Amino acid sequence: MDAAGARILIVDDDAASRRLLDVRLRALGCDTIMAADGQEALATLRQEPPALMLLDLQMPRMGGMEVLRALRRDAVDLPVIVITAHGSVEAAVEAMREGAYDFLPKPFDPHHLEIVVRKALEHRGLVQANRLLRDSLDAHTSEILGDSPAIRQAIEVARKAAAAVSTVLLLGESGTGKEVFAHAIHRWSERREMPLVIVNCVALSEHLLESELFGHEKGAFTGAH
Q1: pLDDT at 135 (0 to 100)
Q2: Does one domain contain both 65 and 150?
Q3: Which domain holds residue 50?
Q4: Residue at 20 is within a domain
Q5: Residue 59 and residue 124 share a domain
Q6: What is the DSSP-derived secondary structure letter of residue 59?
Q7: Residue 218: inside a domain, yes or no?
Q8: Taking the C-alpha atoms of 131, 137, 138 and 140 in order, what is their torsion angle to the nearest 10 degrees?
Q9: Is 166 in contact with 191 (CB distance < 8 Å)?
């Protein structure tokens, strides 16, 4: 996502800091909205959802950590760059644990600000593109059809497998729906947000198969980089 036209919410109780960030971000072509504390920020989020938030950690009434916890509790999908006082590495690390994308120390360098903002917006764009692709793939994934006792039993077993943290082996003749069940198990599992990687073992030689599935050390064979 390009910075030009991106709406960014600046949350800082210091009016001078808000103005400085506003000037720098508008120079990048961003649209900015302001909030003076955490409560105002959460209210603004509901009215004008931004593409990115710059969040000061030290604020009265409701600080930055409380805002991060509220965002995580409400499952708000928004990259947050926290603004920390110079040298407060511990606070930055804690903020990252609470879900912040990155941090920006005060006083900040304009060039560093631009890099961090562009990276965060690019990350958001990739996440949104990945979600759209995943939704599109799910929409085109074949559903399991049939209502016979055997099909119902197979679906029940597959759902139990999806709920477990275990390796699953699907066996059956060609055309019986092994890949359909594999997609369904992935879709029903807690790993559905992770990629489903399909490897056609028939197309790989015996030596390449092991390397493809388990990797190799650099220099193990010619071309092993």
Answers
A1: 64
A2: no
A3: 7-136
A4: yes
A5: yes
A6: -
A7: yes
A8: 150
A9: no
- Write down the pLDDT at residue 137: 60
To the question of pTM greater than 0.70 for the whole model, the response is no
Phi, psi of 11 (to 5 degrees): -120, 110
Spans of the chain below 50 pLDDT:
none
Determine the Cα–Cα distance for residues 28 and 7; give it in Å rounded to an integer: 11
What would the two tokens of residue 148 be?
């016979």
Instruction: Give the tokens for residue 203.
Output: 């197309």
Q: Roughly what angle, to the nearest 10 degrees, separates helices 64-73 and 38-47?
A: 40
Say if residue 119 is exposed, middle or buried (CB neighbours under 10 Å; 0-12, 13-18, 19+). middle
The secondary structure of residue 74, as a DSSP letter, is: T
pLDDT of 9 reads 96
Give pLDDT, residue 185.
Answer: 93
**What's residue 219's pLDDT?**
77
> At 99, which CATH number?
3.40.50.2300
pLDDT of residue 136: 63
Rounded Cα gap, residues 64 and 51, in angstroms: 18
pLDDT, position 138 = 58
